[in-house]
Amino acid sequence: MAANDSVNILNSAYLAVEYIDSFLPDNPLQQPFKNAWNYMLDNYTKFQIATWGSLIVHEASYFLLCLPGFVFQFIPYMQKYKIQQDKPETWEKQWKCFKTLLFNHFFIQLPLICGTYYFTEYFNIPYEWEQMPRWYVLLAQCFGCAVIEDAWHYFLHRLLHHKRIYKYIHKVHHEFVSPFGMQAEYAHPLETLILGTGFFIGIVVFCNHVILLWAWVICRLMETIDVHSGYDVPLNPLHLVPFYAGARFHDFHHMNFIGNYASTFTWWDRLFGTDSQYIAYKEKEKKQQLMTKKAN
């Protein structure tokens, strides 16, 4: 009975969104995107699309999303939004991070990306434009992927902080006490595989078109680069996502090393009490701000 009620609620929500969508104006970018997509299908093989296309989407998205945070360090006005203002980025650290990223991207992640084509073939995942899901279905699928990845990340990330194994694997990621966007995928190769597994679980569950692979890559990179950016910028649209952790939440994890283990949402840390030190820290900050205001 409960299952039927849930299905009915989901169906009603889907119909409601579909009804609203019918009143929205046509997306002016839809036709150019359709033309580009069909051109890609006509001129490249599925293996090339799934492999080299996925690599290009990942690399282009990663470094483009890192660019604003990289530029912020040169803009004095943006320094008031930097969370750990006493720990500026250095060229030495950024260069070290960049070199490790290139190794991880091309020697760890690329072999995994090469399996994308065989995944789509085995599960008969379509590439055709006509079978591409609507934008709201794609958005819901990405949210579902994020919920699954967040759960995997919380428990495995917390395990990697265990004193018996921390120094062998996860310590690499914590070399930077004050994180910056490019550092999001700076990690030990084993950590890339262990925590990266959570990314693929949602794909296995939800994928009904190859576009989800790319949409979820972009969404996941957008989130992880934001929380590692080191900047809490106002009017960040990601803050509209319910229970979104954000940069301050994860920045505290790098500063404190304990607690705030989830990647995207706050509910697992709240449920298990692993955000208690962060809550205490925020309360202390508020008191200090009030005392400063009274003194002035």
Task: Write a concise synopsis of the structure shown.
With 296 residues, this protein is mostly helical.
Write the layout of secondary structure elements.
Blueprint: H1 2-23, H2 30-43, H3 46-72, H4 91-113, H5 116-122, H6 135-160, H7 189-206, H8 210-227, H9 246-256, H10 267-272, H11 276-295
Helix pairs in contact: 3-5, 3-8, 6-7, 6-8
Describe this structure in words.
By secondary structure, this protein is mainly alpha-helical. Helix content is 65%, strand content 0%. Helix 6 packs across helix 8. The N and C termini lie far apart (62 Å).
* Number of contiguous helices: 11
| Cα separation of the termini | 62 Å
Q: Report the C-alpha radius of gyration, rounded.
A: 21 Å
The low-pLDDT segments are none
Task: Count every beta strand, where a strand is a DSSP E run of 2 or more residues.
Answer: 0
Q: Kindly estimate the percentage of residues that lie in beta strands according to DSSP.
A: under 5%
Structural class: mainly alpha
Mean pLDDT figure: 91
Shape: globular
What does the main sheet amount to?
A: none
Q: State the helical fraction.
A: 55-70%
Order of helices and strands: HHHHHHHHHHH
Descriptors:
296 residues, mainly alpha
